[in-house]
Amino acid sequence: MPNSKDPILTTTAAARMLGVATSTVQMWMENGAIASWKTPGGHRRTRMSSIRSLMDRTPSQNSTVGQAVEAALSHVSPLEFQPAATPDYPVGREEAARLVALESSRLVDTPPEERFERIVRLASLVTGSPIALVSLLTSSRQWFKAKVGLETEETPRAWAFCSHAVLHDEPFVVEDAAIDPRFRDNPLVQGDPRIRFYAGVPLRDGNGQALGTLCVIDREPRRLRSAELQALVDLAEIASEEVQHKG
């Protein structure tokens, strides 16, 4: 559903707002100075909020283009919040916008919070799973905002089962990773924690972007009962609300 409070802008519309050439806006978008994404037809788009933010950072309406560029490029997103050039994992059409939303959430690399820790404990309990995670996906890694049953803080994005889960509206379930051609050679299947079962539900921000998942993992092949799966979905909804509240 379109966000009427933060409309999508073409490069030409953004250039008019900023008082610069369309080619300049295109360059800033390519450099990451303006958060943007590409349509299926290859056209760059951005949100009005991104342009207003850039205007707020620019010293005055009379600033030269060079000063505006300097102000913009000082806010280029880190590489892990920019799409990988040749990703070795599946991505959706909105990966660029998803990464912008994830950076804007300011959740990655933040300290543990009880509001998320409580959710993973409940997810583990209601599904009988030894491992439960709130996982956030940058372009280079999956980082665990909350976890139970796992020591590591993160893994490479290429290993993340969650990269598949965020592409779906419904729960993503792998009943036996050891015989699934998508995952049987995954280092997390071949080595610790020796994943066999996985179920993940996307965590979405207020605009519907999937920032990561609430997922449960087992070291044995299995299925979830319908009540267990529904409980996981309900907990993911609660976790999404916490993401949207940002504390």
Structural key phrases:
DNA binding, GAF, DNA-bd_dom_put_sf, six-stranded antiparallel β-sheet, 9 helices, Beta-Lactamase, elongated, 2 domains, alpha+beta, Multidrug-efflux Transporter Regulator, Chain: A, Domain 2, three-stranded antiparallel β-sheet, 247 residues, 9 strands, GAF-like_dom_sf
Plain-language structure description:
With 247 residues, the protein is α+β, with helices and mostly antiparallel strands. The protein has two domains: 1-76, Multidrug-efflux Transporter Regulator, Chain: A, Domain 2 (Orthogonal Bundle), CATH 1.10.1660; 105-245, Beta-Lactamase (2-Layer Sandwich). Helices cover 36% and strands 19% of the residues. It contains nine helices and nine strands. Strands 6-5-4-9-8-7 form a six-stranded antiparallel β-sheet. Strands 1-3-2 form a three-stranded antiparallel β-sheet. The longest helix is centred in the last third of the chain and has 20 residues, at 226-245. It is elongated and about 60 Å long. The relative contact order is 0.11. Residues 59-65 have low confidence and may be disordered. Pfam families: GAF, HTH_17. This is Excisionase family DNA binding protein. InterPro entries: DNA-bd_dom_put_sf, GAF, GAF-like_dom_sf, HTH_17, SinI_DNA-bd. Residues 111-244 form the GAF domain.
